[in-house]
Structures are given as C-alpha cells and as structure tokens.
Amino acid sequence: MMYLMESEGVKIMRDNMYQKIQKILKEIEEKKDIIILYAAEAGTRGWGFPSKDSDYHCRFIYVRPQEFYLAINEVKDYIEISVDPVYDIEGWDLKKALKSIQKFNPEVSEWLQSPIIYMEKEGFKETLLNVNLKYFDEKVALQHYRSIAVNKFEDIKNHDEERLKRYFYVLRSLLAADYIMKNHSIPPMSFKALYESTSMQQDLCNEIEKLIQTKAANNDWLKISTHTALVNCFQELLAKCDNYLLTAHKVQRPEDGELNRFFREWIR
Asked: What predicted TM-score, i.e. pTM, was given to this entire model?
C-alpha cells in the first residue's frame, strides 16, 4: 500500500506541534500534581489517514499521589484540556483506564498501540498491553466497532455527498471487525495494518489508495459523491459481522487480581 511522502514544511509543522503538546503535558503534571505514565496520539493521525489540516488528539493515562486513592470521596477521574481549535488533550486516571480494560473498551487498547507517543514511563505500555490481551472479548469488541460503522454509514446513505473522512471511519471500523473475526484477537490501531490483513479485490484496493492520497492533500471537510464500490463493501462487511455475532459468545471475564496488582504497582 502506498502513502504520500510528507513535505518538509508539513514535517516541521508537525514536529512543532508535538513539542508544543509535550510542553503542555509537562505543565499539566505540575499544575495537577500528577505523573503521566503514557501519552499518545489518537484519531486520524494515529490511525494513519490524516488530512492536511487534521486536528491533534492527545490522550494520556496518569496517576496521582498514593494518598489520593486512600480518600473516601469520589473525585473526577479525568482531565480535559481544550485551549486550541487545532488540538485537544484528555487524560484518564489509571483506575479509570483499568476499569475500561476490565470491560474491554477498545479505546485504551488503541492508545497503547499509537505510533505517535508523547510521553511514556519505561515498561508501562508493554506491561499494560499484555494485561489488556487477557481481558479481550471479541463479541464486545465487534459490537463496539460495528456501532461506530453503522452510525457513520447512516450519514453516507442519507446524503448524495458526504465527507471523505466518514468513509474512512466506516472502513477502518469494519476492517477492525473483520480482523477480529479472522484472528480472534485485538485489532491493530494502524489502518495500514488492517488494510493489509484483508483480501479485498485489487480494483477496490487501488480506489482506496487513491482516496488516501486525496484525503492527505485536502482538508477534513472534503466531500465526495456516493462511492458505490465502497458502499457495497461496507454492506458486505456489516452483513458478515452481523452473521458472526449471531453465534458469538461473551468470554468469561478473568479475575481482577492482575488489574489490581498492576494498579498497586504503578500508584507507588
């Protein structure tokens, strides 16, 4: 699969934004009295199909001082920073992230696979990825990706023209579902990895490559007329997912001992 080479000007702008986000993360640590264990890019830049003006979406996992977790009061377990239309920054307390893994919310799994990492404590990502694997539930994951695809697909079906970005949201979600059905495992975050794991017809692959290049050269608001071949592909993958879900069973959730041990280790 071919991707456009990044121009020098775009690379400089991207590097400047990364440095800006890293600086803000360090300021958040000081102001909020937290330690950021891991921070990475989510969204289209992390997935691998950004437009030239795509926003930056930084997501991080943090811990507070140990005594914070020994208090009886329930307090806010996330931090949101939105001071610029170009980027947003959101962090989850470690306990919130682990509860999400406990229910197998694929969101944390994707953060941990991001190719763009802003901050990382040694050993955190690899250890948590291994823990995450043990809580994988393919039925829950399939329902998650199917829900995203169906919601975005409705917009495409209801309009003669729709944003190219929505087509990629649907395609990536359905490719993730297809990966789960084939491999019975957590799908990769990377669109390229998902795309290369499928067995699409070559003419459709060529179309997708052209659309990736079109998206990279334009802004996020670019609309295209109904793409019949992709719509047919979406319908086939959705039908495959629906049929699979008819016989899929939720796995028995593991005991929480490993999550608790991980939590206790990192709040120290």
From this structure: 0.90
